[in-house]
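HOLO CASE FILE
Compound: magnesium ion
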Amino acid sequence: MSGTPPELPIVVLDALMPRAQRLVVNRRGSMVWEVESHRGQYAVKVGYPIEATADWPAQPWTALAPAREGAVLYRLGFDDFAYGEWELGTWNFQPWHEGPDLYELWRPCREPDSRTEPHTSAALGCVEALAELHGRGWAHGDVQPAHFIIGPDRTHLIDLALARGGRVPEGYDFPFRGCLVHYEAPEIARSVLATGEAQPTQEADIYALGASLLISATGWRAVEYPDDAPRPEQRQAVASGKRRPVKVHGELGELIDAMLSPAPEDRPTIYEVGKALS
Ligand SMILES: Nc1ncnc2c1ncn2[C@@H]1O[C@H](COP(=O)(O)OP(=O)(O)O)[C@@H](O)[C@H]1O
Ligand SMILES: [Mg+2]
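Model generated. Tokens follow.
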């Protein structure tokens, strides 16, 4: 994927006939495009394998992620999406959701000497989006601030590529190897360190939601480790369960603290979080 500028696969061009397109991100084996077509605005995700680097082992599964997400969207009964294969991997498209993500939305709260408090209504929107998934028996596996898009009518929880809860075709499935370390629950970090894999759970999603709210509101990670520490060292810090104190005022702060409980069984459920916030 180096050298030539990235392009949309022909199959996707055929399906959507874009009037306009914009590359949103291209990183770690995944491209996302915003596409305008006669059918509407779509997010197009295109996966390709990544070769090994000094910091990363080869990750062939990134090629499968869009199709895996497509299979999850199908299981969950979404409409207006499609997925398939291209030369280097798989792709999907799904409706584009307009709006800032949680991290962008709460930027004013993170400014030095800011008096802006994080809005409970935004937190509640994120909780409702995750509750919808949990209510159907699924775990997301990759909850992070960038995955909550705060739209005018509702909040969308995107990137279901790692979600667990129903059958996914074997050819598109791959093991869960943890998520972004800032949002990884200690039990997930320990499992990834010990075996290279873990099981996404609703309890770990709650931890990730707590860490997402904390980092978006304050800029602080739930666990302290140096920015430049190698990933296993960051994971080790998370696995140890040694947390920073949560410095968010009021009910939201107390809730975040409970969501970040080291033992999964001590964390509130998403319904308990929603009840406490509303
Ligand atoms: N349906 C969507 N609506 C709006 N933006 C999206 C959508 N899907 C993806 N994006 C944008 O693309 C970024 C990456 O998408 P994501 O689904 O997280 O893929 P990956 O993590 O594999 O790169 C998101 O953080 C968001 O900015
Ligand atoms: Mg993502």
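CASE NOTES: The mean pLDDT is 94. The longest strand covers residues 20-27.
CLOSED: yes
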